[in-house]
Design goal:
protease, alpha/beta, 8 helices, single chain, Rossmann fold, Class_I_gatase-like, serine protease, Peptidase S51, 7-stranded mixed beta sheet, two-stranded parallel sheet
């Protein structure tokens, strides 16, 4: 049973998440917090914002950089903790490091077995069958060791985060123009999220 929450900016849609998972369900839960995708970025405020939001929900946050951690630590945290959270950043670098570490296989197994997954921007796009479409948003040069662009394939659609939001307006528009007729795209703004419970997929929107 899948239990997945995909968004563009987690700290902005916390009310949607606490409708998806109640405060009582979250209290005391352990979160494997993976900021690896952000390591290539100059702007990373969303990492602290996401972490703070989880802590304010009384979650126990354990940070895990899969690009530097040992496989024993990676497997232990991913399998033992209650929730997996992957932040935004460079999707290609993220995929490269997921593969290098073997975390891709562990995450896929855990999520397909029902573990709650939160994917923010890159963390949402990485679940798609393929991330070729992300070339119009992220720089692939940060992933020189990436041999192919096959994503985790946990979902059968392609999340397009930051729809209508600065500074990604043009990039998102180009993705939609190029791939809308060939891929099942799901664009979401910073005030939206995609919630998946087993086979039910819903697009949620935060009221102004």
């Amino acid at each position: 049973m899948k239990h997945i929450f995909l968004c563009s900016s987690f700290s902005q849609v916390v009310p949607l998440f606490t409708d998806f998972v109640t405060a009582e369900e979250l209290k005391g839960k352990t979160v494997t917090f993976i900021p690896t995708a952000s390591l290539t970025e100059k702007v990373t405020f969303y990492v602290k914002a996401g972490k703070k939001a989880l802590e304010e929900m009384e979650c126990i946050v354990e940070e895990l950089d899969i690009s530097s951690a040992h496989i024993e630590e990676i497997e232990s945290k991913l399998r033992t903790n209650d929730i997996i959270y992957i932040t935004g950043g460079n999707t290609f670098f993220l995929l490269q490091e997921l593969r290098k570490s073997g975390a891709d296989r562990v995450i896929t197994s855990e999520v397909l077995n029902g573990k709650t997954y939160i994917g923010e921007s890159a963390g949402a796009m990485i679940l798609s069958p393929d991330i070729e479409y992300v070339r119009l948003m992220d720089d692939i040069e940060y992933a020189p060791d990436l041999s192919n662009l096959e994503g985790l394939g946990i979902v059968d659609f392609y999340t397009v985060p930051h729809h209508t939001n600065f500074p990604f307006v043009k990039a998102v528009r180009k993705i939609i123009q190029k791939y809308d007729s060939s891929l099942p795209l799901r664009p979401i703004s910073n005030l939206q999220a995609i919630a998946i419970r087993d086979k039910k997929i819903s697009t949620l929107t935060l009221e102004d």
